[in-house]
Design a protein that fits this description.
Length: about 220
């Protein structure tokens, strides 16, 4: 199984459908499991960290018109520019992010949350070239985290449904503590749509303790592939 596909997707796998949106994985056979999401807000759709795929516009269109494309991690521009230009909308990035050089669509910074929505913006990481934000809608209980936590295999230690990124295991982000979301949507893997509050609490609370086991398993996987 490849870590990441560089060729254009030929299909996608739908994930994380709920009343307020849907997600997809454009390359289901890659181990990174790069996930994209569409968040619906009063007939408008915000596309988050997208990887493009044929017919994905039809999937997103079920929830309304695309209002903007949102990038929540400075390494997740992915196909944001292509999709933004196709829908003639801006690319929205947190105001503290460095501006990208290779995005030709209009780029707009935002600080407190997505415009005209209940999605609040959280600063997760801003150090050593890692710039990451999360979105949280308290009304629907939806938490969107692009990288700090995930469900792809390389995130999860034994027994975890949701895991902290290996590079953040020793210092799990404090800003995510205390949330009891109904669902957690992630940038790598399927989201947690049931028992999400417990899964998040377990992931953050045991991140350091379970780090050695995850590191050993990761090394073994690299040596055997």
């Amino acid at each position: 199984m490849p870590l990441k596909r560089s060729n254009p997707a030929t299909d996608f796998e739908e994930i994380d459908r709920w009343d307020g949106g849907v997600g997809w994985i454009a390359h289901p056979d890659e181990s990174m499991e790069r996930a994209s999401h569409a968040l619906a807000v009063d007939g408008a759709v915000w596309v988050v960290d997208p990887v493009d795929a044929p017919d994905v516009d039809d999937l997103v269109g079920e929830f309304g018109e695309v209002e903007g494309v949102v990038v929540l991690l400075n390494r997740h521009y992915r196909d944001a520019d292509r999709i933004a230009r196709r829908h003639d909308v801006p690319v929205y990035v947190p105001s503290w992010f460095d501006r990208p050089d290779d995005v030709t669509a209009p780029v707009r910074g935002f600080e407190n949350g997505l415009p005209e929505s209940d999605y609040r913006l959280l600063k997760v990481v801003d150090s050593f070239g890692w710039q990451e934000a999360a979105l949280y809608d308290g009304e629907t209980g939806t938490l969107v985290v692009p990288e700090a936590v995930g469900t792809a295999p390389f995130f999860r230690a034994k027994g975890e449904r949701l895991g902290v990124h290996p590079m953040l295991r020793l210092t799990p982000p404090r800003v995510l503590r205390g949330f009891r979301p109904e669902r957690v949507l992630v940038g790598h893997g399927r989201g947690i749509l049931d028992g999400a509050g417990d899964a998040l609490s377990t992931a953050l609370g045991g991140a350091r303790r379970r780090a050695p086991g995850l590191f050993v398993r990761t090394v073994r996987a690299l040596l055997t592939n």
